[in-house]
Design brief:
Blueprint: H1 5-25, H2 36-48, H3 51-64, H4 69-93, E1 100-111, E2 117-129, E3 133-146, E4 149-164, E5 169-180, E6 185-201, E7 205-220, E8 225-242, E9 245-255, E10 261-273, E11 276-287, E12 297-308
Antiparallel strand pairs: 1-2, 1-12, 2-3, 3-4, 4-5, 5-6, 6-7, 7-8, 8-9, 9-10, 10-11, 11-12
Helix pairs in contact: 2-3, 3-4
């Protein structure tokens, strides 16, 4: 039987189209060779596991050899996708006690001679990032005495779960306990819920803001107990100035008809070796209506060692 050329072309068309589609889907690096020097730098950046290093190599590779730019970008994007998939798998399989990261901060001093005083400060921050849930725990203790008389005692513990709607927007809950008799209260319990948003989120700069209603119960040193509805707002800012050097600013406000509270901590962190770094921080806390005999503003300066894990 005779087969006409148009009929042959018609029969082979699906196969030819499939082969063409397959060639179009093939990774760019199989069609455009990547210079050996660029490929070596890209492999080294990927091996380091640092996304910033990979982005830098991709950026300058596109300038050095535009012909292979798409192939370099395709390899980098595949690495990111594989890593994200592996992270999701790890998170799904982890128990509630896994995947916690954080920092422990410890500082103190002792003086003898003309002045007999001592003091210490400890801070613990823990964070667990899940696919949709983030958990944050913070604990802090400050103590100072002079001539065996306490001149400062401040204790704080807080827990905050976040439910992430997307990469920036989340809902939060917050529970906090404080005690500071020198600021005029023995015990203070706070609970809040609201909305948080990551206004800036880059490898070097991050800014998170939160806003919502709150309830506070305070036992003052003058014997008065007070319960109030308040408005709560927080700001958390982190700026990586240089590799190993960063600045953070954390601020919180509880605004209510009675005693309102404003607090803020500025910290400079410098990496020393391995997981160890040094930190200098300055904290200010303001109470708008403290009991008689207590001052409104309290400040604390710290120099401490920080261990990150």
């Amino acid at each position: 039987m005779r087969v006409f050329p148009p009929l042959i072309a018609l029969l082979l068309a699906p196969l030819l189209l499939a082969n063409a589609a397959a060639d179009g889907d093939a990774p760019d690096d199989t069609r455009v060779p990547i210079p050996a020097a660029i490929r070596s730098m890209l492999d080294a950046a990927i091996e380091s596991g640092n996304d910033g290093d990979v982005s830098t190599v991709v950026k300058y590779a596109r300038l050095a050899d535009p012909a292979s730019a798409d192939a370099v970008l395709a390899i980098a994007q595949k690495w990111r996708n594989d890593r994200a998939q592996a992270r999701q798998t790890t998170i799904r399989q982890a128990s509630m006690f896994d995947l916690w990261s954080g920092r422990a901060e410890l500082g103190g001093y002792i003086t003898t001679g003309n002045t007999d005083s001592k003091g210490g400060a400890a801070v613990l921050d823990l964070t667990r990032e899940g696919l949709q849930w983030r958990h944050k725990f913070h604990a802090q203790a400050d103590y100072q005495e002079n001539a065996n008389i306490a001149t400062r005692e401040h204790y704080l513990a807080s827990y905050e779960p976040n439910y992430k709607f997307d990469d920036r927007l989340y809902a939060y809950g917050a529970a906090q306990y404080e005690s500071d008799r020198f600021l005029g209260y023995y015990d203070r319990y706070s609970a809040s819920a609201g909305i948080g948003y990551s206004a800036v989120k880059t490898p070097r700069v991050r800014l998170d803001v939160e806003l919502g209603p709150a309830f506070r119960q305070t036992a003052f040193t003058n014997g008065i107990e007070q319960s109030n509805i308040a408005g709560r707002g927080t700001l958390a800012f982190n700026w990586k100035l240089l590799p190993g050097l960063s600045v953070t600013q954390n601020a919180a406000a509880y605004v209510q008809s009675a005693n309102s509270t404003l607090s803020g901590t500025t910290s400079v962190n410098a990496k020393l070796i391995g997981p160890l770094s040094a930190a200098l921080s300055y904290n200010v806390q303001y109470e708008s209506m403290p009991p008689v005999g207590s001052v409104s503003t309290d400040t604390t300066s710290r120099a401490s060692l920080v261990y990150s894990f």
